[in-house]
Structures are given as structure tokens and as C-alpha cells.
Amino acid sequence: MCSACLTPVYPMEKMVANKLILHNNCFCCKHCKKKLSIHNYSSLYGEFYCISHYQQLFKRKGNYDEGFGHKQHKDQWLQKNKGAKTE
Hints:
By secondary structure, the chain is an alpha+beta fold. It has one domain (about 10-85): Cysteine Rich Protein (Ribbon), CATH 2.10.110. The chain is built from three helices and four strands. It has helices spanning about 50-60, 65, 75-85; strands at about 15, 20-25, 40-45, 45-50. The radius of gyration is 17 Å and the shape is elongated. The protein starts with 13 loop residues before the first strand and ends with a helix.
């Protein structure tokens, strides 16, 4: 099964990236939908990006979490510490 479209993948169209099975056509940048290859992609949190958008999204916020729409790890740590102090 293709991890992107959840349909069967036949051997001739199968590719594996980050241990995920995909169709060749489903292996594309999340941001611009450009078709990717094993030699020109980056991934974060199980999502694939072309190199230029991966760098652009990182530069937008200066870190990988906020740039890609996730909470920063330090915010998660602060919440855990607040919960431990109040108990």
C-alpha cells in the first residue's frame, strides 16, 4: 500500500523513502507538489520536501519545528516542567 494515497503499489512503480512505500508519482514535495527523487529530497516528521522548500521553511522561523508548523520542543518541555511544579 502506498503511504501517500493508500492504494496498492505494484513492483514496477514502487519506491521506498524513509522506510515508507510510495508510488513514484506520489513522492512529491508537500509544499509545491514537485516530483521528488531519492537524490533530491529532505524529510521531517514523515513529510517530504524538495531541498529548496525545506531550506526556505527552515529560514522562515529559524528552527525546524515552527518553520514546519509544529510546536517547538522547548515549549513542550516548559509545559512538562509547569505540570511537575504544580503537583
